[in-house]
Amino acid sequence: MSGSILVAQTKEPRVGTNPEHIANPPESRGEPVTWIGRDRAFDRSPGPPPEAETRPEILRPEDTGLANRWKWTLGALVAVLLIALAAWRLMAGGAQPQATLADRGGIPLVSVIVPGRQAVTSSVTFTGAIAARYDMPIANEGDTGRIVAVYVEPGDHVKRGQLLARIDDSVLVQQVHRLEASLEQARAQAALSAAEYRRAEGVAAAGALSAEDIEKRRATSVTDAANVKVVAAQLAEAQARLARTHIIAPVEGTVLTRHAEVGQIANPGGDPLFRLESGGEVEMRGQIAEQDLAQVKAGQAATVYLTGITRPFAGQVRLLGAVIDPQTRLGDIRIRLQPDPALRPGAFARAVVLVDNTQRPVLPQTAVMADSNGSYVLVVNASGKVERHAVRVSGTTESGVIVAEGLTGTERVVATAGGFLRDGETVNVAPSVLTAHPPTATR
Hints:
Layout: E1 4-5, E2 36-37, H1 50-54, H2 61-94, E3 109-110, E4 112-114, E5 118-132, E6 135-138, E7 145-150, E8 157-158, E9 163-167, H3 170-203, H4 211-243, E10 246-248, E11 253-258, E12 265-266, E13 274-278, E14 282-289, H5 290-293, E15 301-306, E16 313-324, E17 330-337, E18 348-360, E19 362-363, E20 369-371, E21 374-380, E22 386-390, E23 392-396, E24 401-405, E25 413-414, E26 428-429, E27 434-435, E28 441-442
Parallel strand pairs: 3-26, 4-27, 5-28
Antiparallel strand pairs: 1-2, 4-25, 5-14, 5-18, 6-13, 7-9, 7-12, 8-11, 9-10, 11-13, 14-17, 15-16, 15-18, 16-17, 19-24, 20-21, 21-22, 23-24
Helix pairs in contact: 3-4
């Protein structure tokens, strides 16, 4: 038909990344076909075309990709939420504190111990050195001189007054001899003057001598008698100086050291030539801590041990220091010992002083616990409940811990695992109750 155009709907394939099926337009249901001619304009009906009511919606490829991405995003969010929930259950749930024995519903079964009371020996141990009780230095007290002889060696036992060494006395001997002769002259002159004065007094009544002559003879007699005393004193001084050339032992004892050699010049006030152990008495000297010093008393028994010697040496506390060193917080102590050849001054020694011997409860170390309030034990009372008892520990031994205060020895003390129990908690006691009867403990 010329002069008109027939508008017909044809199926055209769509090209895309994901080709979709395009539905065919529905066939006309008897509606008239409009022919658009060149001589008249297209008359659009005011209402919607019939195809709009029945034509299905066509999805474009870009809309399909967007929907897929939303699906994947939603799935990832759900997975993340599930993982976070599982992690929270594992971590937050595991952080909860575990239930104690008291919270588990069952009554705990505990082992207890009845410690009783046993003999406990408390002691204080310290170290020190052996020393002479009276360490007497002996030096030259006379004039400077050369030593010409030495008669003793270290370790020799000497008597009081025994000669130890001799200094050259050749000059002093001559001075003594001269003074001895001068003394004899003075005595003779004094005797002559005294005789003349007596004769003058005999003739004084007859008037043979004047009073002046008699007085002169009396003065001469007195002067000569005084001169005798002067010379005698000089002689005694020389003899004393001569005696000091002999170095002797002032007391009985043992020679500890010798620094005198033949030919040596001995000066007065110089270094000691000998050191003498007075009376052979020895002692141990040491230092103990301030808290131990308060427990030790003079007269307490002590036992001293020397390095390399198995047998002990019995002693006794002789002296305690009057002051405590503010720097070291230690005080002096001295132990009296019986003389023995093995007790050489300067030897290292260890001493044990017995300070107390009494009856005390002794517990295993697992039964005694401590916190910020101090040491304590858990005791099961008659009602089967746990009670906390504060105790004071005075020391430890091979048998256990010594309890000085807080227990009488008849209590039922929880032996182990007391840290898992609470004060006032109800417990069951194991059938076999252990009673502690170890051997005598020594601290």
